[in-house]
Design brief:
Length: 174
């Protein structure tokens, strides 16, 4: 704005949400190098053969966000009909047992039900960039009518972390 609208005029506001930036490994390595430099803003930090100051590395992340917003704008102005994703589970419960972990969930009632679910798991906690073994891996593709899963591939004494993702059907898979 400011906008001067007459009776009968309309204004369309488009809201875009997204994220972009440095890859987690790059952010971790660049941040660590910056700390080791004694927080020297002029120090050249090398990452994958490129040298830049901390601020210039930061601005590469800003550029990624701008590209994402430009793409969203291009999608909107082209009239592209972006499909709506299915609603996520409304409730997700994890209960541990002697030799298994039982996961249950509920869904929202709505016009766009999930076409299925993907279940992911990792173990233990970590700081910084996770080792490959700590990255979430898909452990199950589940039908849209399923509301529980028993994970029996578990070991006592190890912490497990899960996330459940609702996915679209074949005709509407964002």
């Amino acid at each position: 704005g400011p906008y001067t609208l007459n009776p009968g005029d309309s204004l369309r506001i488009v809201y875009v949400e997204g994220f972009a930036g440095l890859e987690p490994e790059a952010a971790f390595d660049i941040g660590r190098a910056y700390k080791l430099s004694g927080y020297d803003n002029d120090a050249l930090i090398e990452y994958k053969g490129e040298q830049k100051t901390k601020d210039l590395w930061y601005f590469t992340g800003i550029d990624s966000i701008k590209k994402m917003l430009d793409r969203a704008s291009a999608n909107y102005t082209s009239g592209y009909d972006i499909p709506e994703p299915p609603l996520p589970p409304s409730n997700f419960t994890v209960n541990s047992g002697t030799d298994r972990i039982t996961l249950t969930w509920e869904t929202f009632n709505g016009d766009n039900p999930p076409g299925g679910f993907e279940l992911y798991r990792t173990r233990n906690q970590y700081q910084g960039v996770p080792e490959e073994k700590f990255i979430y891996n898909k452990i199950a593709d589940l039908d849209p009518t399923e509301r529980s899963y028993e994970d029996t591939e578990v070991t006592r004494g190890i912490q497990y972390f899960y996330y459940l993702q609702a996915v679209g059907d074949v005709n509407n898979d964002p």
